[in-house]
Design brief:
The protein is α+β, with helices and mostly antiparallel strands. 21% of the residues lie in helices and 30% in strands. It folds into two domains: 191 residues, Nucleoside Triphosphate Pyrophosphohydrolase; 128 residues, Alpha-Beta Complex (Nucleoside Triphosphate Pyrophosphohydrolase), CATH 3.90.79.10. It binds ligand DP6 and magnesium ion (MG). Magnesium ion binds next to β4. One of its GO terms (molecular function) is metal ion binding.
Length: 352
């Protein structure tokens, strides 16, 4: 968001959020809620501890496909690799230099299972810090034919539909929850279709819609004031989970409140990746919904949950860089409350 001339005259410390700035922020949040991306123009926190992402050097991205047929059998491939020879796994592999995530998915399914496919939605993202991120897609077959042993090669020995019950030597049992996740989504899509947005990013970052809600369903969003009020973007650091970036923001904004609040990354509104220029656009931006929750629930004598913060308001920011913005736009408030309560959003799981 380009700062207006008028903004440059205002000192950060006494800048509240003008109506025009509120409108711009609320519009940006609505764009993110609808799965659209938002150009990453800078990084507010953690950049000094983060290196630009370079595929196969300091970041490894893996794509994995969950594909069902009409009998709800799942597509499996028999590995040709020495360390898991003849064991079965979902079609999966490492993203190659210059590839988008969807191109990598199509290539891996073609190489390992023989089929052409189209991604339907991201199902789940798993991470072990910025250096290892796995993108699990629900996908559907659009052509080609299943790979038979006659076509065995170094990519895989063959592919087959698995009824998910018969005994099968698996390369890793970690895929069972991925298959289950796919089946649940197929039967009852509990988050919007979410596919990567082609917007470039140099680092692995999180742009946060960090919210505080109270029993009256008021909702506040944490903003960085300068140059104009905007959602915080924080870089992931290699020693921590990607989601730790949200903790760094809360630690910086309200250090004393940090220790009695939970910083809970509920999920991903949208994901931005380009990948075309090696070492320049290999980063990923996760636009996330993060809830700030006091880590203690107080109950009255009837056992009912009582307002957790005496004021029902968010903990005060102590760092003048930050300001809480109370969401006033009714539709946006309802959408954010619905997502915060039902977590109807793409999950981001840290395996750290
Ligand atoms: C993390 C994995 O999902 C790896 C999947 O990637 P591959 O090892 O199959 O890589 P390619 O050779 O590119 O196909 C499973 C694991 O390492 O536990
Ligand atoms: Mg593989």
């Amino acid at each position: 968001m380009k700062p207006q001339v008028s903004d440059l005259r205002r000192k950060p410390s006494d800048m509240e959020v003008t109506e025009e700035e509120r409108r711009q922020v609320e519009e940006q949040v609505e764009r993110l809620l609808s799965g659209q991306g938002s150009e990453v123009t800078g990084c507010d926190v953690g950049l000094e501890q983060s290196k630009p992402a370079t595929l196969r050097k300091n970041v490894t991205y893996i794509v994995c496909a969950v594909i069902f047929n009409d009998q709800e059998e799942v597509l499996m491939v028999q590995e040709a690799k020495q360390d898991c020879y003849k064991q079965w796994y979902l079609p999966a592999g490492r993203v190659e230099v210059g590839e988008s995530l969807e191109e990598a998915l199509r290539r891996e399914v073609k190489e390992e299972a023989g089929f052409d496919c189209e991604p339907i939605t991201l199902l789940l993202i798993q991470e072990q810090g910025p250096q290892w991120i796995r993108f699990i897609f629900l996908a559907k077959v659009t052509g080609g034919s299943i790979k038979t042993v006659a076509a065995a090669d170094q990519e895989s020995l063959q592919a087959s539909w698995w009824d998910r019950h018969s005994v099968l030597p698996l390369r890793g049992r970690d895929i069972l929850r991925l298959i289950d996740c796919g089946l649940r989504y197929r039967r009852d899509p509990w988050h919007p279709v979410t596919l990567p947005v082609d917007l470039s990013c140099r680092h692995v970052v999180q742009t946060l819609v960090l919210v505080f809600t109270n029993a009256e369903d008021q909702i506040w969003i944490l903003l960085i004031k300068a140059p104009t009020p905007h959602l915080p973007t924080a870089a992931a650091v290699k020693t921590h989970a990607v989601t730790w970036a949200a903790n760094m923001v809360v630690q910086e904004a309200m250090p004393s409140a940090y220790y009695d609040h939970d910083v809970n990354t509920l999920g991903v509104f949208s994901l931005q990746h380009n990948g075309r220029q090696h070492g320049k656009t290999d980063g990923v931006c996760f636009n996330t919904l993060v809830a700030l929750l006091p880590d203690r629930v107080t109950r009255n004598e009837d056992g009912e949950k009582v307002e957790w913060t005496k004021t029902g308001r968010p903990p005060p920011v102590e760092n003048p860089r930050y300001v809480w913005l109370e969401v006033q736009k009714q539709t946006l408030r309802e959408k954010l409350l619905e997502k915060t309560k039902n977590t109807s959003i793409l999950p981001l799981h840290s395996l750290y």
